[in-house]
Amino acid sequence: MVRKTSISRGTRKRLHLKNKLTPVLFLLPGILFTFIFRYYTMFSSFWISLHHYDVTKPPGEFVGFANYADMLANPDFWKAWKVTFLFVLLSLLLSFWVPIVQAIFLNEIGRGRGVFSSLYLLPSVVPAAANVIIWKWIFHPVYGIANKVVGFFGLPPQTWYSDPRLTVFCIVFPGIIGGGFGVLLYLSAIQGISGDIMEAAEIDGCSGFKRLLYITLPNIWFLILIQLILMIIGTMQILDPVIQYTMGGPGFESASIAYFIYDKMQVRFDYGHATAIAFMLQLVIAVMTSIQLRLDQSERE
Fold this sequence. Notes:
Blueprint: H1 9-48, E1 51-52, E2 61-62, H2 66-73, H3 75-96, H4 98-107, H5 113-121, H6 128-138, H7 145-152, H8 167-172, H9 181-191, H10 195-203, H11 209-219, H12 221-236, H13 240-245, H14 257-267, H15 271-300
Antiparallel strand pairs: 1-2
């Protein structure tokens, strides 16, 4: 005979409370650190942007939105935005679509797919510093291979990074090689498309370019959108390549808005204006991201 054990009402309440509190306690450290290192720093930077920051008596003199007014009146600020959007445009034209095409071709390979996948992944493990050195040699105006190539087509040699018309192009151009984790992400998404859909498309005579246009791309559109948003956010904040290749030169012609913030803060020590510009950059990125998400939602509806 099975003996039944009774649980008191108080014990049941304690167990119920314990079950509710346990997930909260696990999440609490992450929430706390996110608030401290994300939101607290964000609001602190906004507070600093309202002052003429003084390192001896922080945060200094309160000036309200004077830093923002000075920023909008500064022609270098608008020039930095122009350069930033040029970076975004060239990244879309030269590099964003490359991993998609590589993944599509890689999916069509029957044998040796693993070998080619490894080859596509190799560029992502090359240290950024080594990559910069290589491309600086390629675009060197005297003994670089880039001038050898343009000379082969009968064109005059270029100064590349020293040419204001070409410097942004030279910084973005290495992305045309593609490869990296993006290829594997797109390949996984393509291979995740249901085989029944592909088989039905084949039966209906939808093959080749039509299959790519009506089956493959619509089924991986969600990933393309996510990568597009991440690419735009990353390019809007582009800083490391600008510092490594040109330090914003020549004549600030490659100075992105992120480099403009870096110059204000680390070179001129103007923390008030730097944080004001950074806060504006954050707002612009947030608006652009929300617009992209809304456009995608409207297309789905």
